[in-house]
Design brief:
With about 180 residues, this protein is mostly helical. It has a domain of about 100 residues. The protein is built from six helices and no strands. It is globular. It starts with a helix and ends in a 34-residue tail after the last helix. The mean pLDDT is about 80.
Length: about 180
């Protein structure tokens, strides 16, 4: 009787162990993700990269490699758009300004408000939902050292969002 019980336990244990065994010992495949776009500062890639190949390359480049790959192209484009460019309201000459733009990251201020551009001392520290980023970028490109040069080129005439932002997270306006 004990032999039958032992055989039953052994058979049951074997069935249990066999049911837990993987049919395939092949490891799960590694999944690779590829970045398709980046837009820390909107319109920079659109405006400063002329060719589709450069736009695509910029989108997948790591920020650490962007300055070396794109700063000279950005500077050439800036001077083509505004041949009279010397410095902007931030006091940045063409080389420094395009070096800032070519590295597409959003800095964060830990000591003040997060704003795209509000003054010569409070700039490029992120961007708030209500920041008029395109007007700010146009001012930095065409506004000159006083932000008043070329006034027809420093506004896109879109002065507000078409819907009010929410007062609670996630703060975005509801869709139409």
């Amino acid at each position: 009787m004990k032999t039958i019980q032992f055989l039953a336990i052994l058979l049951g244990g074997s069935l249990l162990a066999a049911s837990c065994k993987k049919d395939d010992d092949t490891p799960a495949p590694t999944i690779y993700y590829q970045q398709q776009d980046q837009m820390g500062r909107p319109a920079i890639n659109t405006v400063f990269n002329v060719s589709a190949a450069d736009k695509d390359a910029f989108n997948v480049a790591t920020p650490a490699s962007q300055n070396a790959a794109f700063q000279a192209k950005f500077q050439a484009r800036l001077l083509a758009l505004n041949p009279a460019y010397t410095t902007n309201v931030l006091g940045l000459n063409a080389t420094v300004f395009t070096s800032v733009l070519a590295t597409d990251i959003l800095n964060v201020s830990t000591t003040g408000p997060t704003k795209f551009f509000t003054s010569t001392t409070d700039y490029l520290t992120g961007r708030g939902l209500s920041d008029d980023v395109i007007d700010n970028e146009l001012t930095l490109i065409f506004g000159g050292p006083t932000a008043t040069s070329n006034p027809a080129l420093t506004k896109d005439n879109v002065n507000a969002n078409d819907k009010a932002f929410s007062a609670s997270f996630p703060y975005l306006a509801s869709p139409w």
